[in-house]
Amino acid sequence: MVWVSNQAGTSISVSITSGGAAASTFQIPASGLESSAVNLWTRGATAAETATIEIGGDTVTVKGVNGNDFLLIYSDTYIKFPTEQVFFG
Predict the structure, then answer these.
(1) Lowest mean pLDDT segment, chosen from 2-6, 44-48, 77-81
(2) Residues 2, 71: contact at Cβ < 8 Å?
(3) Phi and psi based region of residue 46 (left: phi greater than 0; alpha: psi -120 to 50; beta: remaining)
(4) Do 12 and 29 meet the contact criterion of CB atoms below 8 Å apart?
(5) Which residues have CB under 8 Å from 5's CB, separation 6+?
(6) Does the chain have fewer CB atoms within 10 Å around its N or its C terminus?
(7) Are β-strands 2-6 and 70-73 bridged in parallel, bridged antiparallel, or unpaired?
(8) Residues 6+ apart with CB under 8 A from 43
């Protein structure tokens, strides 16, 4: 479940896909509280995926996004926090 946090000060468009498969594009607004309904993608893929982020007139591609990663998006940079899969029980 990739979490995308928009700290850019403007709405952004994000799509996440793997292996060239079609992906839907989602809008993440700049204001308001973050929520799983807007910022969280439930992903069934086990391989790394690619996130494409459109901000203003620019497009940024983030490769190697795994299912539990956290993407923090600013107006001029992004930070990817990889998450190690941990199981309890």
Answers:
(1) 44-48
(2) yes
(3) alpha
(4) no
(5) 34, 39, 70, 71, 72, 73
(6) C
(7) parallel
(8) 1, 2, 16, 49, 67
Sign of CA dihedral 19, 12, 36, 61: positive
| 3-state SS, residue 86 | coil
Over residues 37-68, the pLDDT tens digits come to 888 877 666 778 889 999 988 999 999 988 88
Q: What is the 3 state secondary structure string of 21-53?
A: CCCCEEEECCCCCCCHHHHEECCCCCCCEEEEE
